[in-house]
Amino acid sequence: MKIQGLFTAIITPFTKDGSKIDYDAYQRLIEKQIEAGVSGLVPCGTTGESPTLTHKEHIELIKKTVEFVKGRALVIAGTGSNSTQEAIEMTKEACDAGVNAVMLVNPYYNKPTQEGLYRHFKKVAENSTVPVVLYNIKGRTAVNIEPETFVRLAEIPNIVAVKEASGDLNQMAKIIKYTNHKLTLLSGDDNITPAVIAIGGMGVISVASNIYPKRMVKMLDYYLSGQFEKGNQIFYELFDFMNAMFWETNPIPVKTAAGLLGLCEPILRLPLCEMSPEKVQRLKQVIEKTGEDQ
Asked: Which numeric CATH code is attached to 5-236?
């Protein structure tokens, strides 16, 4: 199984009162992604508001994703936690649901040492029957997986890739070099995808592709086939939108964009809240300037 190309960190649509997941809207979102030809979908990640999903919702959403995708793309389910035991339990349930891989975020808040990080990921990976993608995002978890720890983790057979959201290209290059290409590197930030591909990355787990999957698929296809000029043309068409996705905490802007385009209700669960009116107007202008997905 190749983990490369465009993977959409898919949003979780809620009903108007925010009490339930809107599975009708979710199925429509998935069909939009499949029709665009994405390599895979990543439910229950940061963009999917996993911290505010109940355990029951989390597992149900993973099961529904597998059901709706019907094997037409890879499903990489977020099953990470700051509790190793909870991560193991969710990983086992996701494996039973038929996912193609799981994604494990750094344990957050408790700030483990590098040894603690290694033992955490090792323990969870040993309880997974599918490949494991690590998710390194210091900005949200307060800890960074250091390159030396990646070297150790790369020796665990089913740890196969990393979503790198550190924004540090030097670290990413070290991961590729020091693990001797054992770990597939995926960009965790849309706006540095060209640079990540240039140093040996093989794809992106994207926020922007919730709205522009067709153009993002084309962009990645060009980059991975060495046609950087054509890839860059699309990249710069989407560049302002990519940056707008982080005007406020993700996924506030992408949920707002989805709402503006009628893809789902722009409802977030507290402690996340709606985007400021001024920024909504600016976002409308960016979407109008960027144009339709094609």
From this structure: 3.20.20.70
22, amino acid identity: D
CA distances from 141 to 105, 137, 168, 203, 290 (A): 8, 6, 16, 23, 32
pLDDT, position 233: 98
Strands 184-187 and 203-206: parallel
pLDDT at 129: 98
Portion of the chain with pLDDT greater than 70, in percent:
100
Q: What share of the chain is helix, strand, coil (3-state, %, to 5)?
A: 50, 15, 40
What pLDDT score does 1 carry? 79
Q: Element (H or E) spanning 34, and its range? A: helix 23-36
Angle between helices 277-290 and 252-260 (to 10 degrees): 60
Give the span between the Cα atoms of 174 and 165, in whole angstroms. 14
Segment 172-202, tens digit of pLDDT = 999 999 999 999 999 999 999 999 999 999 9
Give the Cα separation of 40 and 12 in Å (integer): 16
User: Per-residue DSSP letters for 260-289?
Assistant: HTTSS-----TTS-PPPHHHHHHHHHHHHH
How far is 293 from 209, CA to CA, in rounded Å? 10
3-class secondary structure per residue, 96-142: HHCCCEEEEECCCCCCCCHHHHHHHHHHHHHCCCCCEEEEECHHHHC
Active site residue ranges: 135, 163
Query: In the chain, where are the structural domains located?
Result: 5-236
pLDDT digits (tens, 9 = 90+) for 53-106: 999 999 999 999 999 999 999 999 999 999 999 999 999 999 999 999 999 999
Query: What value does the mean pLDDT of the chain take?
Result: 97
Half-sphere exposure of 159 (CA within 13 A, CB side): 26
